[in-house]
Amino acid sequence: MKKIRCAIYTRKSSEDGLEQEFNSLDAQREACAAYVASQKHEGWVLLPAAYDDGGLSGGSLQRPALQRLLQDMAEGLVDQVVVYKIDRLTRSLADFSKIVDVLDAAGASFVSVTQSFNTATSMGRLTLNMLLSFAQFEREVTAERIRDKIAASKRKGLWMGGLVPIGYDANGRTLSINVAEAQTVRTLYDLYEAHQTVRAVTQQAAALGLKTKLRQASAASHPSGGVAFSRGHIHQILTNPLYAGRIRHRKTVHDGQHPALIDPERWERIQGMLQAGATKKRRSRSKTQSSLLCGKLFDETGDRLTPSHAKTKAGKRLRYYISHRLIAQSGEAHQGGWRLPAPELEAQIATLIAKTISGHGWCAELIPSASPDEIGRLRSTIDAYLKKTREKHLLALVAKVTVQPGEMRVTLDPDHMAQTLQIATGNIEPDCLVITTAFQIRKRGVETKLILADAPRTLDQTLIKNIARAHHWFTRITSGASVADIAKADGASKDRIQKVLPLAFLAPDIVRDVLEGKQPLSFTSDWCMHHPLPSDWQDQRALLATL
Question: What local confidence, expressed as pLDDT, does residue 382 receive?
Fold first, then answer.
């Protein structure tokens, strides 16, 4: 029987949850592996290589694991691509046709384990292409029709449904005033005019016992709402033009057919107050969250790393330094670049500078012509400076930072150093202002984290727990328990147990390195779950040396 080599591809759009021990990618892979095992009688064999894209959208083919999979298919290393659902592979009909071309050229096929499609047969390919074509066409036409209808109705000032805002009741295609709730809305507007901050309004509303709208979807469902107002909810009420008798459609506001709760002129005046408060808040935040390395950070190609930021679903603001070409060529195929977490990078560089200038003998190297007394005074100046200085002051000493694979170079500004240390610029040895350090890279989704050579290492608690768990399970197996017994008793899947068990046979020195945080950065639980570990200790050491 001919063997059919199967490769599992998994994808998750967001990075949320990828740090968990058993995440969405693991769940997809487990389901696909079970399906491949069920086709063993057909000659299906699962390849050990993992093709996982975490934190990447399905709207583009520019995904590292997918590109690696397509390359392996082109080289004839894969016969069957197995995915959990079609949309894990791609969401675009055009992209799917490109993938099918690669599959056909390589004589490979594609199967979705939760949908009845197998492109190994001509009928499967025909059915899949027809359904994808009609689904995309219907989705686009329906969306256009609904958008046009909603836009036309809102231009007439009609209410187009959704959650009825507090202060109103639904009345066909318009709204009528709910007298009791309307008083709550008016009170919130009064409070804002009196205090002029949403935070103060939130506190006063809670003190007055004001509650949100009580809702009940059906007679059988539990009611929702009726709780204290949050700051976000109050801000939404204060900025909603609905209360001024208007209907918003995207960026356009139309006159509505429902009565206003707030006089339109008063509503406009309050919007001006809100915008003025928001501008003041942004200016304050920009002072505390400014990118301290802006204009000073470059990569090995000379490309500048530009400050950028993103927000999590919880509203947390995350700062990054990103290669300028990734921003300028957004949406295009590019040659790669850097995406570094800003707070961590700034802290690492500040620590590196402090450690360097406080080092034994640095003062003598900085000013070779200085006398012992002058060096002693300089040493005292540096010690006093480091006691009172903050991270932003240390980063102000930086003239340029260059990041290249495996190495980071920090160049200090001679004029700023001379002013800070109260010495003459001409006496400074320029070579002492260049700090070079090696680093290792740890990838998480599209983000790259630098681990400096001398930086303290954190213990991988997940890996440590899995090693302990593997020894515990192996002891139970040697005592007569089966994998099925352990899975039932511990609430773990048999596949999970079988993946973790090899950790019980790690060489003692490797286990010691893990407990001390000295193992290679890439040697994680997730890596172990997707790569076979050799049983021979010498082979294990050789494998880890390549990571």
Answer: 87
Q: Which amino acid is at 200?
A: A
Tokens coding 68: 């690696």
Angle at 335 between CA 333 and CA 339, to 5 degrees: 100
Question: Which residues make Cβ contacts (< 8 Å) with residue 186, sequence separation at least 6?
Answer: 261, 262
Residue-by-residue DSSP string for 440-476: EEEEETTEEEEEETTSPPPP-HHHHHHHHHHHHHHHH
Residue reference for tokens 């993938």: 99
Burial of 385 (0-12, 13-18, 19+ CB in 10 A): middle
CA distance 274 to 280: 10
Number of helices and strands in the chain (H, E): 21, 18
pLDDT at 280: 60
Query: Does 4-135 carry CATH code 3.40.50.1390?
Result: yes
Name which of 546, 441, 529 is nearest 20 in CA terms. 529
Give me the pLDDT at residue 446, please: 47
Q: Are 308 and 345 in contact (CB under 8 A)?
A: no
* Positions of the chain with pLDDT lower than 50, given as ranges: 286-288, 333, 444-446
**Cβ-based burial of 91 (10 A; exposed 0-12, middle 13-18, buried ≥19):** middle
Domain boundaries, the chain: 4-135, 168-286, 297-452, 461-545
All residues at 6 or more sequence positions from 200 whose CB lies less than 8 Å from its CB, including other chains: 191
Say how far apart CA 124 and CA 127 lie, in whole Å: 5
pLDDT at 282: 56
CA–CA distance, 505 with 485 (Å, rounded to integer): 21
Q: Which CATH superfamily is domain 168-286 in?
A: Putative Large Serine Recombinase; Chain B, Domain 2 (3.90.1750.20)
* Neighbouring residues of 310: CB distance < 8 A, sequence distance ≥ 6: 317, 318, 320
